[in-house]
Amino acid sequence: MAAITLTSDNFKTEVLDSDKPVLVDFWATWCGPCQKQGPIVEALADELADVKVAKLDVDEVDDIAGNYNIMSIPTVMVFKGGEVVQKAVGLQSKESLLAMLGK
Predict the structure, then answer these.
(1) Buried-state track 66-84, b at ≥16 Cβ within 10 A, e below 16
(2) What would the pLDDT profile of 2-24 be if each residue is shown by its tens digit?
(3) Is 32 considered catalytic here?
(4) What's the rounded Cα separation, in Å, for the pair 34 and 28?
(5) Catalytic residue among 15, 23, 24, 34
(6) Is 31 considered catalytic here?
């Protein structure tokens, strides 16, 4: 399944109220490292059935990016039970993302 595109309207439902862990990739179209992170995140979305994988464009959803103090991108966060339990800034390998998810 493709990564979920997050908006201000669906963030609460898809991330905060999710009964599964959620990996959120904070990114932007103009960000070179984000473009390299994208295919890795999409691959995880296709491979993991027990985790939601989502992407949030910081330029389009700047209110949520601001709420989580996103200063550098790409930033990846893992949410469980509506709380941030893991955070990594900068380009992450697939192995690193899997480790963040306890895989």
Answers:
(1) eebebeebbbbbbbeeeee
(2) 899 999 999 999 999 999 999 99
(3) no
(4) 7
(5) 34
(6) yes
